[in-house]
């Protein structure tokens, strides 16, 4: 999530449909999916083709698979039957009984009580709601009927188990949350009781405050005293607005809320003290921490409040990409840390409690807002020199943000050396200081951009493209006058003789100048053939080093391609010429690896070549100056394909030689003649 990079992607065939959420088996590190209701698929990270993954066709439709950290996956069928995955895989076509009749499952959840997995699900039939509690390993099943509520019905459910008691929370259409307590039966084996027990419910919380009513769509339990509700907050005379709210059920108070202006899907998930929700078109992750509930905290009268530090690190406003340091007005025991889609990596820790006599980081930065440059940098250096704390990384992010804010307010101020020192010596990320690279682009600080591209794991594709365009558009003369790290190019580009590469004989893997003349009918001038794009570096060493930093930056093709299409044609051709040059250089080596530090890999070079051709192929075909380049590239790739094709033909013979070598006795002298046919 922090890097915005897909780690794996699997697709079912055309016409097939995934019919329940995919889960992970915590014990085997496998993924489990169901498509077309009955077809079970199981695969691992390294599996590429889902169609070749393990497949089992079941005898009944699956409603949901639940995965428990220490209990294994549990499968709930649409007919109400439950099986553990192990039992199901022993005989996939085993008969599955129907537990419910004419009822539709509305919600399900799985829990561990001791060593036993417990599955709870609710059903609806003709306006009546039922609750089932199953222990699949004990074949135990209990059915209950929910007490009816006049003029209101349940919208969603959630549950938790404490002290052998199931606490079922029901969000009703009358804007209230009700609580139902279900004691767990201590039986070893029991069939479904014919007579249903009616469960009474009690009002837990009314979702209204100061005349505003929350029309909830989803709720989750945070701890025994706090719940989170996602929904539309409707106030008299105002338009309803979607909000994520935190409620204290013990004292019936709204702890805090945040408006979600881009809208949500209506679903809210909670896992390991993190919220997951869809905000607009992105997945937003919000970390939270619940302190012990107290009346003082619930009504905002907690004396030892952490509000100053909350304003520095626990930022709701990243949901709208606003400023880093914001005012967090409500003082509550539920401390929240909100992260946008790209700043989960670096802010993992909650804020440490401050001593009463110590200024918080947020307050210190506010005090230094109008300080002189000398005082500002001195105080910030002292702040960073403190002993490591869980929040030191976030503190340094705030320091960089304070510097970039001053750069934006005062165009003449730019602490180049200080910023470079911070980025080089600290483990930062783009999300911790999102304005840094934008300021560096504005100041044309190529060296800082190079460092950021090499070190930041989560740079947005838009910024990567902006850096590429800036590097390509900067003149060689200007680049020679600035400091750039050349470690990635000095081993394969000769910087002597006016920065022109010393020409060496090119002997590529499988490539011969005379080998593929029939591939393209275009006749090249002799001068062009003697100095082809693959033999001479088209850019100087400084620009090459900067472009190498771009090649190292992680990206997602879907997000980068639209930006690459805006790259001017001349710059695109220059970049492709450099990529072709690197490709030829890699092919000179048996291991296809360039010498040096942080050099691009053959995979990075080829991926960028494909991206660039996808974005500009039509334009390049039309431009006369690109014709020779495309022709040379085509011939070179064609020659390599032929070379590797010839290698594959003798692969079997080489393997046989290796096998014979293992069988040969090392102490016996012999001469063998092997004929390769």
Give short descriptive properties of this protein.
alpha+beta, five-stranded antiparallel sheet, five-stranded mixed sheet, about 675 residues, 25 strands
Q: How would the blueprint of this fold be written?
A:
Elements: E1 18-25, E2 30-35, E3 39-43, E4 54-57, E5 62-68, E6 72-77, E7 82-84, H1 85-90, E8 104-113, E9 116-125, E10 128-135, E11 140-146, E12 154-162, E13 165-172, E14 176-183, E15 197-199, E16 202-206, E17 208-209, E18 212-223, E19 226-234, E20 241-248, E21 253-259, E22 264-270, E23 274-279, E24 282-290, H2 295-298, H3 307-313, E25 334-339, H4 361-367, H5 373-384, H6 392-409, H7 416-425, H8 436-443, H9 446-455, H10 461-473, H11 476-480, H12 496-499, H13 526-530, H14 541-552, H15 557-564, H16 569-588, H17 602-622, H18 624-649, H19 651-663
Parallel strand pairs: 11-15
Antiparallel strand pairs: 1-2, 2-3, 3-4, 5-6, 6-7, 8-9, 9-10, 10-11, 12-13, 13-14, 14-16, 17-18, 18-19, 19-20, 20-21, 22-23, 23-24, 24-25
Helix pairs in contact: 7-9, 9-14, 10-14, 10-15, 15-17, 16-17, 16-18
